[in-house]
Structure to design on (369 residues):
């Protein structure tokens, strides 16, 4: 579920629960807690005494630090939540204890057929609407007239407890910085290659209109002075420069959603790349083992053919007397080879030139009695 929540605006688990409640013919008692993506919690309550109303409470991290209401959300965020199926969804004040927002869903106002699935899917996007609205509120001020000269202090945004990122407001742009952390060293290598490729592609003419991307192994200057635990990474820092034309019209929603899901996209890419490499290595190993096994089988067959095929068949065709006679003839041939080789005229040459001289000893010995 966490992996799918990164890329789908509608929570798949929340959508499934709400559809079951809506399609049940009889009212059911339900008090269900749902945790999603590490820091998001849903509380779904349904009572048999009130079959048409379901209460949905939400606890989610806060991205913005501007003017907040009592529930922790800004006026812009509340306005965006009210726009979700306004005929069906109503904000309950105050929210349930331990939650920032409670919604009352009136299933009686949801039409039958395909329209019901569409409306419940839209209701399930409430978490994405809350997060997107908070970041949209920041990005809309990228070219505001009240932007003074100089650099603003970085704003730490926590989408996931272990994956915070920073937004730095500047007069002509907003810079989003993502500290990248990975558990495995192999993931660091894959991600580093991906970031370098992302910079190369982003600098090409075909992608000149997208936010420029930069990667650095050390923190960028904009983050100097931040806490050490926020800057200690093994995957470096990825930065995106967002200009005014990146947040105009429908581009704003697309830019916001891309930033919120950048961590999830990188993890998805690293996971797929690692799986692809492992499959290729496994396939290569299997092919090498197959070649070795084939060579071993062919060698065994050849040895059996030589030892048990031609030689045995040849021996079987002879009788015992023939085998002994062949051995005797072979022995005689070896003896002939070892005998003296006769060369014509060699005896005369030996008598003339190879005579052993006779030596007379100067010392004579007498026999002792």
């Amino acid at each position: 579920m966490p992996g799918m929540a990164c890329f789908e605006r509608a929570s798949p688990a929340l959508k499934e629960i709400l559809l079951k409640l809506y399609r049940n013919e009889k009212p059911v008692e339900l008090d269900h807690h749902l945790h999603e993506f590490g820091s998001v919690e849903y509380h779904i309550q349904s009572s048999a005494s009130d079959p048409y109303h379901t209460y949905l409470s939400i606890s989610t991290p806060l991205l913005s630090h501007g003017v907040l209401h009592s529930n922790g959300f800004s006026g812009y965020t509340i306005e965006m939540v009210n726009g979700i199926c306004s005929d069906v969804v109503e904000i309950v004040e105050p929210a349930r204890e331990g939650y920032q927002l409670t919604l009352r869903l009136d299933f009686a106002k949801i039409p039958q057929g395909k329209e019901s699935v569409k409306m419940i899917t839209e209701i399930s996007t409430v978490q994405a609407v809350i997060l997107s609205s908070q970041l949209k509120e920041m990005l809309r001020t990228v070219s505001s007239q009240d932007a003074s000269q100089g650099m603003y202090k970085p704003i730490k945004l926590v989408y996931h407890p272990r994956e915070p990122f920073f937004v730095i407001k500047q007069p002509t742009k907003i810079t989003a910085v993502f500290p990248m952390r990975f558990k495995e060293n192999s993931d660091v290598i894959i991600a580093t290659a991906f970031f370098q490729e992302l910079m190369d592609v982003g600098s090409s003419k075909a992608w000149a209109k997208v936010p420029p991307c930069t990667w650095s192994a050390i923190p960028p200057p904009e983050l100097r002075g931040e806490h050490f635990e926020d800057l200690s990474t093994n995957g470096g820092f990825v930065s995106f420069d967002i200009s005014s034309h990146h947040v105009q019209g429908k581009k704003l929603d697309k830019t916001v959603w891309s930033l919120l899901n950048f961590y999830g996209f990188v993890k998805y890419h690293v996971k797929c790349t690692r799986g692809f490499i492992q499959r290729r290595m496994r396939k290569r190993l299997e092919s090498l083992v197959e070649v070795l096994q084939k060579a071993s089988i062919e060698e065994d067959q050849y040895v059996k053919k030589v030892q048990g095929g031609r030689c045995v068949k040849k021996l079987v065709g002879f009788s015992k007397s023939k085998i002994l006679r062949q051995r005797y003839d072979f022995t005689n041939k070896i003896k002939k080879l070892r005998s003296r080789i006769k060369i014509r005229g060699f005896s005369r040459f030996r008598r003339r030139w190879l005579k052993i001289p006779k030596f007379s000893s100067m010392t004579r010995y007498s026999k002792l009695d």
